[in-house]
Design a protein that fits this description.
alpha+beta, Pseudouridine synthase, 10-stranded mixed β-sheet, two-stranded antiparallel ribbon, globular
């Protein structure tokens, strides 16, 4: 029995995809993963991105997740439809050739308009909860370039900033830990020091893969981030990415 066969029996996914397809060819798909939907099934069951894999491809083998996003992070997620494409994408990511851009809405404001966070991260346990902690020695190298796209206040008058983050490495919780490291935890991220619990205000804005046939996809902010952006008077760039219909009729 497959590890998540039981959860599928309890709650079958509908024919309509819960996400938008941002890019598709015969090698891979880039999805706009909604916040709150895990990529893998959890121990407690429930639906995950993998439950809709049969709707993306009729091939016996695959699809495969080319990388991961946290459950509460929305945006661009690459799914390989062919094993050769999976190997190519993962090699591109491992070599640091892919460009992964995130948007985050954070508490407060950084001390500068842009910068680089080059701080190793290590997993630590505290009060029965783990987190990635900046360390001087023994951690995994982690590097994030960032710039401020906007500053303002939320509906309660609290100062907030809109950051663009370019992850040059791919460590677990890298964006979250690095934002906290510069004193600007992401809204809703109490694990990393946010004042108030709530939905995580972090998204994978875009991804560029310089493969033989290059791939570029861009996602728009989810509703909870758009709402805060409107309160602060920020306007996101228009969505000029052609999207497929949410109902998928696979042809590959």
């Amino acid at each position: 029995m497959k590890p998540h066969a039981m959860s599928r029996a309890v709650e079958q996914p509908s024919a309509t995809l819960p996400f938008t397809v941002l890019y598709r060819d015969n090698r891979l798909v880039v999805l706009d993963k909604p916040p709150g939907l895990p990529v893998h099934p959890g121990r407690g069951g429930g639906q995950s991105v993998e439950d809709w894999f049969p709707a993306l491809s009729r091939h016996r083998n695959g699809p495969w997740l080319a990388h991961r996003l946290d459950r509460d992070t929305s945006g661009c997620l690459v799914v390989a439809l062919r094993k050769q494409a999976l190997v190519a994408v993962q090699a591109c990511l491992a070599a640091g050739k892919a460009r992964k851009t995130y948007w985050a809405i954070v508490q407060g404001a950084p001390d500068a308009a842009q910068g680089v966070i080059d701080v190793p991260l290590a997993r630590v346990e505290h009060d029965r909860q783990w987190r990635m902690q900046p360390v001087k020695t023994g951690g995994q190298p982690a590097r994030t370039r960032w710039r401020v796209l906007g500053t303002g206040h939320d509906g309660a008058g609290q100062p907030i900033s809109w950051l663009e983050l370019v992850l040059e490495t791919g460590r677990t919780h890298q964006a979250r830990a690095h934002c906290a490291a510069i004193g600007c935890p992401i809204r809703g991220d109490t694990r990393y020091g946010a004042r108030d619990a709530g939905t995580l205000h972090l998204m994978s804005r875009s991804i560029h893969l310089p493969l033989d046939v290059p791939v570029h996809a861009t996602a728009m902010p989810p509703e909870h981030m758009r709402r805060i952006m409107e309160q602060a008077g920020w306007t996101a760039p228009p969505d000029n990415v052609e999207k497929e219909a949410a109902r998928c009729s696979p042809t590959h």
